[in-house]
Give the backbone structure.
Amino acid sequence: MAKTKQTLSPVEWRLMKAVWRQRKATVREIHEEVGAATGWAVSTVKTLLGRMEKKGLLKVEKVGPVRQYRALKRKKDLVSRAVESFLDVVLDGSLAPLVSYIAKARGLEPEEIDELKRLVED
């Protein structure tokens, strides 16, 4: 089983979120959750899940004739990896542009500004 170092694709994020929400899920259960929004066929979901299993993101168990998928990676670990990758690749390791963007585009609550000030002081 391969270990993933790369971040997830948008498709993988969508499927991982479905698996995390359901904890253990069959192809059909995952398809019911994502199929309507994506238009993917059941066979497409099955193929994608199989690829994610080979990447070491999912574990599959046979329960009778049905295959159940569960996440091998915790959401917080993959989110951390994605943020680190974004900082390294897009922002050359600098956090300032990200904080500046968030502050301008999304706005910050006074408590968040106070927390940022505390972090900078530390």
